[in-house]
Structures
1.
Amino acid sequence: MNRAAGVSEVAADGGRPAAVVPGRRGRPRSAAADSAIIEAVLSLIEDGVSIAELSMERIAREAGVGKATVYRRWPGKNALMLDVMRSLDVPSPPAAGLSVRDDLVSLLEFLRHRGLAKRGSALLRTVVSHVRAQPELWAEYHATVIRARHEALLGVLRRGVANGEIRADHDLDTLADLFVGPMLARALLHERTDLPEGLPADLVDLVLEGVRPGVRPAAATAAG
Amino acid sequence: MNRAAGVSEVAADGGRPAAVVPGRRGRPRSAAADSAIIEAVLSLIEDGVSIAELSMERIAREAGVGKATVYRRWPGKNALMLDVMRSLDVPSPPAAGLSVRDDLVSLLEFLRHRGLAKRGSALLRTVVSHVRAQPELWAEYHATVIRARHEALLGVLRRGVANGEIRADHDLDTLADLFVGPMLARALLHERTDLPEGLPADLVDLVLEGVRPGVRPAAATAAG
DNA sequence: CCGATACGGAACGGGGCCGTATCGGTGACT
DNA sequence: AGTCACCGATACGGCCCCGTTCCGTATCGG
């Protein structure tokens, strides 16, 4: 566990089970092994095994795979974990194009399912905890996954600013946090970590309309 | 690391370096050792040592203390970490009593300093990551620290509902997340994890007034 | 067919940590 | 003065893990 995990072992190739070189001699890599290993990690974590208790040996055992087969694909646990994280990510939200409000809802809805949903939640929380605590891994994950999501959200917000649905007098990054943050808080801070069905819509409307009671017409109206 | 960390070793006494029994014979426990140990953990983490790399042996070494001295106080690493977390917590926010809006700001301001502030941030993030990943520890920490903060926030919100500053048509827990979540998002998701000075006030006003541009009595700026 | 590379399994030497025990010494009680 | 629990230090057996290397076998390209 404590053998001073190689710092740059991730940056090397960015992870990934090493695409098989086309003009390759000999027996090809088994795709089954690839997924068996990833699945083993996920399954162990889902069973409540903390990351600290995960060793390469145990992972290989659970996957029914030789240790060498794991090391042939990843240089170490960090690189493996990074791929596990990536495997939890899905390509991208479609970004429908309805009203900005609806886009926001579906973006948060996407978050609700992915990552923060019931089953995956223990899983993602555990993995994220580990990655978060390791600067190298975190930087990589941030650049890969989080930034993409953030950009998607920013896109929607920009559209909202352009068409007047979103106020223009604040930093867009801050506004983005207003939408994502409550989901995060709910998933991380409370005892029940599953996110109820209607939450995204509720949150979006609340954030849009504000917490103050004053009644608002749907669109802009000069009050006072 | 992987010796199946005793599950209930925390619940026993809830941690804490074992208050010295009054009618006690012999040499009393050294309070200096108590704090040296806690400080050692903090210092190591601040130096970027991941929790997985923290061993009781190393902690004792860093603290200039015999291993036995550590084990005399805490039954294991989990209990120790729990106390370390607690040591990061400060008694409580004063809860001033100005306008509800101002109370919210100072509550978030309190959060900004405590826990999420610059220096403590790496520290708290690391420790929290570890605790979060261990259900036993998390439950304990949640019951002790998080619940208290949440209740304080709920109190302010209730006052707001009573005097009309806060809308009454939503779950208070949800509203609470609206305020805390963005702070969390900012501290956890971004690359710069320090929270700028004016953030709490900005957030509170944004959440209160809403993200829609429609002009409101209190807010001047009308966009587009 | 042959050489190359993969596979699962097992073993290797090296190392760190766990939690306990045992030192000689120390200091606050009675 | 005497007692007794503390102190730091050191050592212990046991365990697990690391990352590599070696098997014998399987499966590809040439």
2.
Amino acid sequence: MTDPTRDAPAPVPAPTLSDVAALAGVSRAIASRALSAQPRPVSADKRERVLRAAETLGFRPNSLARGLASKTVNLVAILVNHIHDLSDLDLFDLLLAEIQAIGKQVIFIRVGAGGDAESFLRDGVAYHVDAALVFTDFADAASVRRMFRNNAVLMLNGHHDPGAPSVTMDEDQGIREAVADAAGKGVRSALLLTGRTMSLVEQARIASYRAALARHGIDLLGELAGDYSYASGRALADRIDVERTGAVFCTSDAMAMGVLDAHRAHFPQHRPARFRLYGFDNVSLTQFDAYPISSIGADKRAYVAQIVRILNGPAPLAQNSEQVLVPTRFVPRLTG
Amino acid sequence: MTDPTRDAPAPVPAPTLSDVAALAGVSRAIASRALSAQPRPVSADKRERVLRAAETLGFRPNSLARGLASKTVNLVAILVNHIHDLSDLDLFDLLLAEIQAIGKQVIFIRVGAGGDAESFLRDGVAYHVDAALVFTDFADAASVRRMFRNNAVLMLNGHHDPGAPSVTMDEDQGIREAVADAAGKGVRSALLLTGRTMSLVEQARIASYRAALARHGIDLLGELAGDYSYASGRALADRIDVERTGAVFCTSDAMAMGVLDAHRAHFPQHRPARFRLYGFDNVSLTQFDAYPISSIGADKRAYVAQIVRILNGPAPLAQNSEQVLVPTRFVPRLTG
DNA sequence: CTGTTAGCGCATTCAA
DNA sequence: TTGAATGCGCTAACAG
């Protein structure tokens, strides 16, 4: 009746390092060293006792306390604009799995377009992460570095900053292959559907397309600005002059899907009747029968492997500044 | 030349609460209270001085230290099996945005099928989160509670545990509507394509379909077990007896897309020629022209709003045990 | 309302 | 190698 613990399920305090040390009959310092990941001077005898004590007590180090003392928390931040593009599904699940596989946990930060991201970020645990993976392009490297305690930033948004390492998809390569494919099939004129043209990555893509088209003597009829979405592709498709256009290149698969649907309506086929169509990103949805869109993309596993390698490397991320390029390639399907 | 700081960019230590207190001419306790989110007794005068001092120093509280002392870190964990279903895109972007909007950061945990999740979890910062949102069904409520320091678990995986609050989609409602729709259109026989049948949620769905079909006198020709994926729907579609089957109900939109593609091949239309087709989840992709699949789903905003309301509520999650039901409804499109 | 004191749990000096 | 002592930065309890 007057049981002070009421019906609460026995809030037994978790064992701390002191408990382990006491049970093992050593000082806390010894216990700390014995349980450290790095090699620390401890006699084999005592190390053994400590480990056994920790085991029997079910001891778990408090990662907050460890972080406070050692400035490392086995935590990684992933900064994104948002996660609602089709290509995100293919990437983040894999990335998450691989990062966890090296023993780190992931804190996801959605920067969004508006964003007083910096203030939000610095007030939270995310400020103390061991590394930040930057996919968003809403901030330059310098300000991103400012958002984290230790400058350990990995740029994955296409920005090459001398102060930070990066892994970038070599999109130019895939674009050249795709345009060469079109040229080989007799295409003489083309239209380009783009995404957010303020993005540096997008600007680089556009430049690659222009150069490749020019090289093959393909006439660039125009550039229409969309926003990567299916809806924008669907809408812009009205402005395609099917009489004159040999190929439509889109900087996202979703836009290409919109274009396909707009022009398939008149011809019940799985590709546009009058022009060739190329997407971008090689999302897994292009494996669905209804959208057999020729695309451009990198091997996601290779891309993620590079990221994890750098994360897990011996060199502190903050001192590292290697610029890795992952190749992309053209992936032919029915529409190309 | 012998500058001890070398060329390092001036590693000025971040100002701490002590610095702020000193500059403001008050004790650290006062500074702490003045900067606290909760109302704490401080004279207006000193509060003002503290805030000004913090401002001029550019002070940011160290969330690790705060967490260590106060046992609360403004951090939420999201536990998922994985994030590669189409329906995930619609949900997690919104959820992430809304959780950040209430000032909390999100740590994503991918449990996966294998999973010594518990050990991984407890060794990281995630163990100390204020709340865990559980989407995975690879663990029951009791063991999930054990995975977090404070028992603050919100079940979102369809499991109703008396010890934890939950937000669940009332799938039965939408299923009844969908089946009624079919019955109204003269359907007399149906086939059910299911996902992972070990899942409790899936079992409940199947039961709902059986009951609804029986109620309308629709003959259930069989149940085929898939895995929610497009590929499984595509494969199982071969086993549909188009002569006898009035409708095919799938427990995911992706499977329905596979079925549609398998049977559209023979009839160049945007729906199967011989039977009606119903999906599940109402993913945004069903708004693409090629997959106008009638579906069942909840209002994502309402669903997320309930989650955030509970997270942000005054009642400690660990003491809360409300069971919220969010309605689903039938969403008619071309195939239904 | 205020300041002092004592932790939170761990890692790391330093002297032995 | 060891252990005592100190500090990471902050919040909470206490006495005033």
